[in-house]
Amino acid sequence: MATQSHVDETLWDEFHRVVNMTSRELGDWLRVRSAGTDSEELPDQSGTKTGQHVLEILGKRRTDLTEDDERVMRKVVDKVHAERRDDLEPTAGQENWRHRLMTIGHDPLKGAG
Fold first, then answer.
1. How far apart are alpha carbons 19 and 99 in whole angstroms?
2. What is the full DSSP assignment across the chain?
3. pLDDT class for 27, splitting at 50, 70, 90?
4. Measured on CA atoms in the order 106, 57, 6, 64, is the torsion positive or negative?
5. What pLDDT, in 10s, does the model give residues 36-80?
6. Counting Cβ atoms within 10 Å, is residue 51 exposed (0-12), middle (13-18) or buried (19+)?
7. How do residues 5-16 score in pLDDT, each as one tens digit?
8. Does the pLDDT of residue 112 top 90, yes or no?
């Protein structure tokens, strides 16, 4: 029996438009962001909880998404829209602003995904 995705096509498309970093770029960024002066104990668990969840979502098919995935996707889309123009043209800004958005998979210096 097939399960029905909680995520409609519009949300799926918009999430993948605003999350313009690849899973590899995001994973690398989360590890860099979390690295301390020593080595990191659990590199696969680095970054924020939301950033890790975005990374998991990027590895899923739409039909495999859960209600929790949908919640995170909406949160990420809303956050990027609140902080960016709708066209998502590459925009320079404060470094901490860029880095904060990058923890959820959006690099303001890249075009839309």
1. 14
2. -PPPPSS-HHHHHHHHHH--S-HHHHHHHHHHHH--SS--S-GGG-S-HHHHHHHHHHTS-GGG--HHHHHHHHHHHHHHHHHS-TT-------HHHHHHHHTTT--TTS---
3. very high
4. positive
5. 544 444 445 556 799 999 999 999 999 999 999 999 999 999 999
6. buried
7. 678 999 999 999
8. no
